[in-house]
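Lecture 7 notes: from sequence to structure.

We start with a single chain of 70 residues. Read the sequence below before looking at the structure.
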Amino acid sequence: MSDYISWSPIRRLMKHNGALIVARDAVDELVDWMGKSAEGITKKALQLTKHSKRKKITRDDILLAIKYFK
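Now the structure, written as tokens:
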């Protein structure tokens, strides 16, 4: 998953939220989790889109998929 999500912006996000020192493997683990979550949400949104006989995934599809993903 690290091919899609860059390490540096995630590290900046963590720093912005108060984490001054973070191990590289901790950031890598978060990036991996984020990638898997995004993949699962996208798959669910695609199912919803196909069920509605559409081709374009909309914001509402993503929001509904997030609701189901939790």
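The chain has one domain: 7-69. Keep this in mind for problem set 3.
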